[in-house]
Structure formats: C-alpha cells, structure tokens
Specification:
Blueprint (H helix, E strand, L loop, with lengths): L24 H14 L6 H4 L1 H25 L11 H6 L5 H16 L11 H26 L2 H12 L14 H21 L4 H18 L8 H6 L3 H4 L3 H10 L10 H5 L7 H10 L7 E6 L14 H4 L14 H14 L4 E8 L2 E8 L3 H4 L5 H17 L4 E4 L6 H4 L3 H6 L6 E3 L2 H11 L6 E4 L5 H12 L3 E4 L2 H9 L3 H4 L2 E3 L7 E4 L4 H5 L6 E4 L13 E2 L11 E2 L24 H9 L1 H15 L5
Parallel strand pairs: 1-3, 1-4, 4-5, 6-7, 6-9, 7-8, 9-10, 10-11
Antiparallel strand pairs: 2-3, 2-12
Helix pairs in contact: 3-5, 3-9, 6-8, 12-14, 21-22, 26-27
Length: 614
C-alpha cells in the first residue's frame, strides 16, 4: 500500500480473493453461447486468443518467478545482496491482477471494434508500426509519466507502493495501484489501437507485443544480471534500446535516476542516467562467488514438496503442507515429471537458500531425492554418492561445517555421517547432525516437576541422549520394548541405569515419541503430553491430549534471508509458511522449526568454539 493511498488504489476485485477470476466469466459464457448456437466456426481468431493469451502470460510470469528465485539463491551475479521482507511477499501476491484487468479490456475492445474480428494472423507492416510506436510515443510518454510519479504528491499516493520493494523480483514489475495500471494500459494501447485504425493490425502482433512487455518487465526486475556483454559488443547501440536488471535496480535503490521503461535513450537525452549504471553492470556480470561458512544438506519429502520450493508456486507455498488446495490433484502429473527428471538428471545437490547470521554465511543445499527413494535399498548407494559429492564439494569450497538433515543422516544410510568421517579422516569440513542441541531443546520441553517419562523408542541418537540425561537427573524413564530397553541400559553407567525401567503397566502422562501410530496414541492416558523428539511432526489423533511442536528455538534478530517461514522476530510463526519460497511440505517448513534453527545455531557454536560433536 502507498504511504498515503489515493483514489483508485485498490483493485475492484481485491476483496474477492481467488474468486476474482470470475470477472472473466462473461468471456467464457459469450464464447459458449456462440459455439452452442452457431458452432465453432463462429469463433474468430481474435476472440479465440483472449483466454489462451492470458494463460500464456500466467505461465510466462511463473517461469520468470521460478527462475529468478532459484538464481537469487545460487547465482553469483546478484545485484542487491539484501533479504526480501515478508511484507514485500504479501504485497506482491496480486501479480496476476493486471493480467485479469488486461483480459477484460481486450474483451471490451473486441466488442467495441468490429474490425478486430477480421484480424489476420500476421502483418509485417503492423509489426513494424507497433515497434516504432512503442519506441516513440510509448517510451517518451512513460518516461515523463514516471518522472511525474516521483513528485512527492503522486509518489506518496501511488508509486511508493511499487518502490517499497528495494530488492526486486520479476513480479515487482507489475505491483502498482489500480490507478497506475489504468495509465500503463492506456500507454501500451497506443500501438495496438493505432494499428487497428490504420488497418494493419494482426492477432499475433498483439500477442507478441504483450509478451515483449512481460518479458522486459520481468527481466528488468530480476535481482541478478543475465544480459550477456557480447550483445552490446556486437551491436553497441543496443545499450540505448534495451535496459538491464542492474540498470533498473539502480532506480529502485537511488530513486531519482534511470526512469526509462525498457529503452534507456531518454535517460541519456535528459541526463537522468545513473553514472554507476555501467560499473554496476560490469560488477554484477562478473559476480562474486560466495563461500558459505555453514551448509545444511537436506532433501525433498513427498512429491508435492517440489511446489513449496523457492522455484515452486507461491500460492501453494503460502500454506502449510497438510492444508492442500483442492486443485492440487491436477498437478500430480507435473509432480511425477519433476521426480523423474530429478531422479535421472539430478547428479548433485543444489542451493535453495542463503542465510546470514551477522558475519557468518549459511546455505541450504538439497539432494534431488524424495522420502520414498531413501527407503529403496537399491537406491541407497546412489543417494550416499550424492551426499558424498556434496560433502567433498563443500570441503573444496572451504565450508567449515556441514549438517546432515532429515534422512541424509539415517543410520542405515551412513550412520549419522560416520561413514564419511571414517572414509575421509582428513576432511576440512566438519560433518554434524545437530542431535546435541536437539537433545537440549527436548529436555527443555519436559515439565520441570516431572518425575517419570515414557520413552516410546530408544533407537535414535537423540532418544538415547535424552534418556541418558533424564536418568542423570534422577527422572525415571519408562520403556515397554524389552529389546530397546536392554540395548539402552547396556550403554548407561550403573548409577543412571537404575532410573531406567521396562514396564507395560507404569505409563506416565509425559510421552517422548518419534513416530507413533494411531493405535499406540490411543493407549496413552487422558491428558498425556506428547513431546516429539524428531523433526517430523506428530499426527494429532487425541483431542484430550496435548501435542507439542517439533524441537524449536527462536531465530536471532540478526539472522537474514529467512525464506522458509514467516518471521515475526524473535519467534517463528509456525502457523504459516510464506510464499517465497522455500517451504517444502512437511520437511522444509517443519525443518524451519527444527533444523534451520537448532542445526544452524548449533553449528554456529561448533564453528565459534572449535568443539566436535560427541
């Protein structure tokens, strides 16, 4: 929202939510009526392109969103090295409003101008006229309108809404108040209406002109430089005819320079080009390779988790994984395809997020494998190869600590990373699994006046550590599985083992659990407190019991670039995963609470103190 919102700030359908697409119902109904009465032959070329062109624009924009967010996480060509605030994410959710608006106007124009119905597919003279009219009147009028928008009166009422985004994304380009978009459409309509009245308009030229506008808008608002230098070397005048992301980025950081739409020559003519434009382009293109201090190596969970990645769909990633939208089933083919592609071509881990804690740099790398693949015995070797490759890559790059997340640390896979520690004893990177701090968080979750706890399983590293610590405090730990009880007792000193008890009758109301099925949950007494000791959240079966969250800690105020969960410092809001990006269903967004916190802070202590994990 602008600083002092003026008239026509809100979109007419802003309060309709996703039902805003119903405003396009007249187009669908009109088309259906014509088909039912006169058949498909009555649908002319111009009318038949209205809805498909809107769908094409949606796909085009989503591709840019995915590309930009992925490149921002991994690319060395970043322009502004700052984090994206979640207010910006919320503010930019309505990027498709202008597509709906344009669709309506195209439909109105179709009804108002009968000549449009006789449009041919292509006319070269119309394409040339469109290009010249854009370079002339459109660019000229936009330049001066844009400068007017930076006058304090219009800026505070309208344009400040757009400039609230310092770190731009492709969709930032279309985030304006409704009133601004009316003017923009009027400007872009100049070439289209002119060709209509000159009689040389064509359907494909209209579509390609809109694609050009979307392409340049999206490209110019990327936060990484992607325009190769050779283009300007081959054709030097191109620098006056096409801007670059770094050129427009200066407009969002300096505000009073680089006003041009897509063609910078008006900034050269009126001396408003930022003097740092060429220098920033060169430095951004050259880039700086970032060497993280810490790396968290994780993986995807179920097939739908791909949509919650940074490169996924914002509307899906903005909701917890267990609250799937009704239309998710239609995306299953895409999910399967992504899994197959990752399985065949996923030869290494990829970067999905960069995080900063003061001077310490951290990255999240993802192994391109899903949960079910970790359960395939014949695929374990290839998964271990991927993990090993990531570890060696981190070692070569000078990473100090690498934490293994989720199933990457499974005992049956590599024994919490012990396989790699033994295979490469001279590794410079320290491999950890975060169990030490997780144990401390679980212990902190147990009521201070507790005298007994029930340990559902004692096979994991965290479970053994928790049991050992509780027995050391004189708290009785009850187990009902004899084999696990004997194994755990054999690892304890005698003075602690006396507090370990195997019984199926003495069941307390404090349960420490990893994975527990519905039947076992119903065996718990009324009022039981279930405390998870793993990163996987529990299914809430009982309404008369209390379920604590997975091990969690507060994120420090100084931590930047958190994209996995909405942060309202200092606590994490666990109820919602916001759009940017990385919120991979039950893993990425739950891991935000467990591994993003306790592993990153844990390895920070390791890094600072030089201690090794026990």
């Amino acid at each position: 929202m602008a600083t002092r919102p003026g008239p026509l700030t809100e979109w007419p359908w802003q309060r309709m939510g996703n039902f805003k697409y119903l405003v396009m119902a007249p187009v669908v109904v009109h088309g259906a009526y014509r088909v039912m009465n006169k058949g498909w032959g009555d649908i002319d070329l111009a009318y038949s392109l209205i809805l498909p062109s809107l769908a094409l624009r949606m796909i085009h924009n989503q591709i840019w969103i995915s590309l930009s967010r992925y490149q921002t996480a991994r690319s060395k060509h970043r322009i502004v090295d700052r984090d994206i605030e979640f207010e910006q994410v919320d503010r930019e959710r309505g990027w498709d409003d202008q597509i709906v608006f344009n669709g309506l106007l195209f439909y109105v124009g179709y009804l108002a101008m009968p000549s449009v119905r006789r449009f041919p597919l292509w006319r070269t003279d119309g394409a040339v006229a469109t290009a010249l009219l854009h370079a002339g009147p459109v660019e000229f009028l936009y330049y001066w309108f844009h400068r007017a928008l930076h006058h304090h009166f219009l800026y505070s009422r309208y344009h400040s809404h757009h400039h609230a985004s310092i770190v731009t994304e492709p969709i930032t380009s279309v985030i304006h108040p409704f009133g601004e978009h009316i003017v923009y459409f009027t400007l872009f309509a100049i070439p289209m209406l002119s060709t209509v009245y000159m009689g040389n308009g064509s359907a494909l030229v209209f579509v390609l002109y809109i694609v050009y506008i979307d392409f340049m808008n999206n490209m110019g608002h990327c936060n990484f430089e992607l325009v190769p230098k050779w283009m300007f070397q081959v054709f030097p005048p191109l620098k006056y005819l096409m801007y670059t992301p770094s050129f427009h980025s200066l407009h969002h950081t300096q505000f009073r320079t680089n006003y041009s739409l897509f063609m910078p020559f008006y900034d050269y003519i009126y001396s408003t080009m930022d003097k740092a434009s060429d220098e920033l382009y060169e430095s951004s293109l050259k880039g700086t390779e970032e060497t993280p201090d810490l790396v968290h190596l994780t993986h995807m969970t179920n097939l739908q988790s791909a949509y919650h990645l940074r490169v996924g769909f914002a509307s899906i990633a903005s909701k917890p994984s267990d609250n799937s939208e009704w239309y998710m089933w239609t995306l299953w083919p895409l999910a399967w395809l992504s899994m197959v592609v990752a399985w065949i071509y996923g030869s290494s881990a990829f970067v999905v997020e960069r995080i900063k804690l003061k001077k310490m740099k951290m990255q999240t790398w993802v192994v391109p494998r899903y949960n079910f693949q970790y359960g395939l015995t014949w695929d374990r070797e290839s998964i271990n190869d991927l993990i090993e490759k990531a570890i060696l890559d981190a070692d070569v790059r000078g990473v100090k600590v690498l934490s293994l997340g989720l199933l990457n640390q499974a005992k049956q896979l590599n024994g919490n990373g012990e396989l790699f520690r033994q295979k490469y004893p001279k590794l410079g990177v320290r491999i950890v699994d975060g169990s030490g701090l997780a144990t401390g968080v679980v212990l902190k979750s147990i009521p201070s006046d507790a005298k007994q706890v029930f340990l559902h399983t004692g096979t994991s590293k965290i479970a053994r550590a928790v049991a050992m610590a509780l027995c050391g405090k004189g708290i009785q730990v009850i187990m009902n599985r004899k084999k696990e009880y004997d194994m755990l007792k054999s690892q304890m000193p005698e003075n602690r083992a006396s507090y370990l008890k195997c019984s199926s009758n003495d069941i307390t109301k404090i349960w420490l659990v990893e994975r527990i099925d519905d039947k076992e949950q119903r065996m718990a007494p009324k009022g039981t407190v279930f405390i998870p000791i793993s990163q996987f959240p529990l299914k809430k079966v009982r309404k008369d019991c209390t379920y604590l969250s997975t091990p969690a800690m507060k994120i420090p105020d100084t931590m930047q670039n958190i994209h996995s969960c909405e942060v309202k410092p200092p606590p994490i809001a666990a109820c919602r995963v916001n759009e940017p990006l990385l919120a991979s269903t039950r893993f990425f967004w739950r891991v935000t609470i467990t591994e993003y916190i306790y592993i990153y802070i844990y390895v920070w202590f390791l890094y600072r103190t030089g201690c090794r994990e026990g």
